[in-house]
Design a protein that fits this description.
2 domains; 156 residues; alpha+beta; 8 strands; 4-stranded mixed β-sheet; Immunoglobulin-like; 21% helix; 4-stranded antiparallel β-sheet
Amino acid sequence: MLGRYRWLLLAVIVVGLVVTGVVVWRGHEREQEFRPAPTSKEAFTADDVPVTSPDINVGVGVVRWKHHPGYTDWACLIECRESDGCRAEIQLVVDYVSSGESKRLTLGGRLDSTYGETVRIGRAQRPAVVVDRVDQVTVDVLAAYHPGVPKPTPME
């Protein structure tokens, strides 16, 4: 009778070790899968980034990015400097340096603000990137936006 319990105890110990090994192995695998791109900083802020905007008078106060598992979250804070307000569909091109190499990121959004107001335009970039510095932001107007005015019907 005592011999039968020894085999049962041995079987329980072996199953316990196998389960523990699988859990540890899967946890390590999952940790590797969600690790962000290597970087010296987890968050970055660039104040007073030069802005080129031939079509609308805006200023970029701040460009920010922050690492998350698997992606980088970008945000550009755009200040309206038009006396009658800023109302347009815009595209921002952020020129930055990543690991010594020049890169570009394109963001899009709608400005609908009065003079002096700040609007956040942002997006997630996958996979996560290393950012050494932000060199400049270019703002292009894609379409004028007039609140309360109906959009024209396209002709066929």
